[in-house]
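Hi C.,

You asked whether I'd gotten around to modeling the 193-residue construct. I have! Everything is below, sequence then structure, no commentary in between.
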Amino acid sequence: MIILGVDPGLTRCGVGVVEAGASRRLSFIHVDVIRTSPDTSQDLRLLSIYNGLVDKVERFVPDTVSIERVFAQANRNTVLGTAQAAGMAMLAAAQRGIPVALHTPTEVKLAITGNGKADKVQVERMVMRILNLSEMPTPPDAADALAQAMCHALRPAGALQGGEREQHLTAAQRQWAVAAQRAKHRRGVDRGM
């Protein structure tokens, strides 16, 4: 399964591509950052992001596009630009019939490190280790995009199906599944976790 991860942003939109093979073995394929200038009008910046994402989707033909779920931040303009960039990724995937998955930063941290409160350095080190990279891609948006793609493959609902999924769950994945079930029961609503 080829997974294209997106760390949406208006100035820097990270794009990472990984392959999830047998036993959820992950292989690095590609990483890049689509950049736009704050001096350009927002409509043209979004068009550049969209065109860059379309190029990546057509080049790597992913089975799934995994995008960071946008959540509230103190800076409203940052949230708005991030949400708009995420929308461009969703549009690029939807137009080609590619399923989209949304994962929060906490879900990514938990899937990659086993700790939903892990810091950026811990996540980056695990990305390097799991993908067998000699150095961390820069800027951080690139590493975050790889982590987003990896999260989708490593989550219990990721690459494997049914009984095969249960046999290959790591301790972190089992912990994530238990936490997701508890959260669902506490809220009484399925929030897609």
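If it helps when you're writing up: DSSP finds seven helices and five strands in the chain.

Thanks,
B.
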